[in-house]
Amino acid sequence: MSQITYDALTNAKQALSPLYVIHGEEDLLRIEALDALRQRSKEQGYLTREILTVDNHFDWSEIWSSLNSMGLFADKKLLEIHIPSGKPGKEGGAALSELPQHLNDETVVVIFLPKLESATLKTKWFSILTGNAKVLDAKAITTANLPDWIRSRLAQHQLKIEPEALDLFAQRVEGNLLAARQEIDKLALIHPPKTVLTLKDTEEAIANVARFDVFQLASSWMNGDINRLQHILDGLEAEGNEPILLLWAVSEDLRTLIRLKGAFSQGQTVASVRTTLRLWGDKQVIMPKAAKQLSVAQLMHGLQQCCLADKQIKGAADGNAWQTVRALLIDLAKTFSV
């Protein structure tokens, strides 16, 4: 197996290989890797691009037809085989195992896969493919590495960031690298090169990603402001936002409150856990108050409701995720409004 990095895909001096496999947990990095390969292909004369998406009714003979066909003007081709499920099935596994034998100089083939289960990584077809391909594993950016990733991306725009602002940035985009990139691109539009971003710059920019922002929710429900909470939720849903980011933000807040209650029970202060629990901005004020008013039972029930909403998003449970999270937050807000 020949593992490669994103930088290797963008190296214009390096000739393209006939076969690539892109897979992994981090969607943004997979997408960026595929975009980089598309750009490299164009630069090296692969001007035709064909995409085959595998589903339950996919005809695997289409691969051979594509490999044996030429473009309208005999252009070299980039053939993308997308397998969203990561499971090609028995027939697909056989075809993918045979694929390396049919590669040619006129076509670059890329197999585009999601995060794969450990059992899939050990299959015959995957072993054969990766043994004959350049492989990019888009591993998730860990919490520990996220600040460095953000700092590096900002540096590409000639921007720097203060440590406290960086901690806040990382907290608000953790688990959503696509949102992080969008925030960085926005900051680059707002601020000129060589700017050192402050905590205020970061708070204002991230809070204004959309007209309504999921990170405004915490202050509304922890302050018992049910009207504002409803207004923000209405706006988020009306703008077509996916509930997954909303769910992630609420879950993280509940987990932080549980950890904060545990810290208080051990005699620790807000100052001693502020960095560990990433209590930046207004959260260093509202969260300690919320932790003292909410019971562990309430917080655990909240996490159970988040699990239910997650199942609803995935179609594994009946009901509407938006309604489930809305009911949960209103119920929690009532604790502070009495």
The H-level CATH homologous superfamily of the largest domain, spelled out, is P-loop containing nucleotide triphosphate hydrolases
The helix-and-strand class reads alpha/beta
- Number of separate strands: 8
Number of domains: 3
CATH class of the largest domain: Alpha Beta
Shape: elongated
Give Rg in angstroms.
24 Å
Mean pLDDT: 88
Helix content: 55-70%
What would the CATH topology of the largest domain be? Answer: Rossmann fold
N to C succession of SSEs? EHEHEHEHEHHEHEHHEHHHHHHHH
Instruction: Give, in spatial order, the strands making up the sheet with the most strands.
Output: 1-6-2-5-4-3
Distance between the termini: 62 Å
Strand content: 5-15%
Textual characterization of the structure:
- The chain is 56% helix and 10% strand.
- It starts with a strand and ends with a helix.
- It has helices at residues 6-9, 27-43, 61-68, 89-98, 118-121, 124-131, 146-156, 163-173, 177-190, 199-207, 217-222, 226-238, 243-265, 270-273, 283-293, 296-313, 321-337; strands at 2-3, 19-23, 48-53, 77-82, 107-112, 134-137, 160-161, 196-197.
- β4, α4 and β5 form a beta-alpha-beta unit.
- The strands form two sheets. A six-stranded parallel beta sheet has the order 1-6-2-5-4-3, with helices on both faces. A two-stranded parallel ribbon has the order 7-8.
- It has 338 residues and is of the alpha/beta class.
- The model has no long low-confidence stretch (mean pLDDT 88).
- It is elongated and about 70 Å long.
- The chain is built from 17 helices and eight strands.
- It has three domains: 2-137, Rossmann fold; 142-209, Helicase, Ruva Protein, domain 3, CATH 1.10.8.60; 212-338, Zinc Finger, Delta Prime, domain 3.
- The longest helix has 23 residues, at 243-265.
- α4 packs parallel to α6 (124-131), α7 (146-156) crosses α8 (163-173) and α16 packs antiparallel against α17.
